[in-house]
Amino acid sequence: MNHKYNTFLICALIISVISCSPDDDDNIVSVPENDRTEQQVVDNDTLVNYLNTHYYNSSEVNALANPTIADVVITELTVGDILPSDATLLMTDVELKTTTYLDVEYNYYILRIKQGESTSSPRFCDKVRVNYSGSLMDGYNFDRSSTPVDFDLTAVIPGWSRVMPEFNASNSFISNTDGTISYNGYGMGVMFLPSGLGYYATYSGSIPSYSNLVFKFELLQTETSDHDFDNIPTYMEVIEEDYNLYGKDTDGDLVVDFIDVDDDGDGTPTADEVRIQTFSEDTRVELEATLASLILDSNQLISPVKYNSDRNNFSANLVTILDDNGNGTPNYLDDTESERIE
Ligand SMILES: [Ca+2]
Ligand SMILES: [Ca+2]
Ligand SMILES: [Ca+2]
Ligand SMILES: [Ca+2]
Known about the structure:
The protein is built from 6 helices and 18 strands. The protein is an alpha+beta fold.
């Protein structure tokens, strides 16, 4: 795993004027920001032109059961060339998507090669394990994973947190004798992002300001996040439909819910205002089988599985969300809980 590049992507921007570098701060150049709406028009024109003038080896890729990102070859169709019969123009196969980010409506494009066979898709605030390769519009490959890499989608460029939930993870994996893992049935595709859903004005390392980005990726695994470990998964503590991490602050203390361990500010930690039953097994497979056998009520959920190094086992919590006074607001969000009916 190339730590330098991982750091680089993790440092990708929630707010584009903040920057960080894999190496040092000397190669960061901050420039005045262009108007986002105007830049989006420019970037979309560039993306559309790219998609109309590049093709991929569709027949070859589609014939593979488990294509990898290395199998997908994107080639420029120069003027006078004829599209090869075993290839498809990118524009023919991509899906146009739109999203709002920082009050600007953006177009971005997805080439969906494999949907992925797991029933689970990451939410925009979850963690993913991926293989990926990132390039600029001129084909320059600025970053790639050599082994699978884990990312928190809340800490990467906005394009990733929008594209990854479109795909499903793998449905099985095999641990090889050499310590590597082979994944089967993973989701796989290519995303074509305007700079506004990438690094935008930041010039960092080998990515110039206002670069559109092409990422090939394999979505191997996904895991529900609980950033504040309060047993309420992050997706329940944010505004998921708006990709908004910062839209909920129940007690108004300026610490938003997904990183607030006492969401209603009543002095009792959220983790103590839900009922928790812990399940442990020696292996993840055994634990997942146990969890799968549980029948959940509508106010119950299962926390992410975690590995306990001290006990060398795996555990997860069955979380029951309580509403003791029956007013429709769960205890952990209800600071009138002292009036609750015992
Ligand atoms: Ca939480
Ligand atoms: Ca708060
Ligand atoms: Ca919380
Ligand atoms: Ca509380």
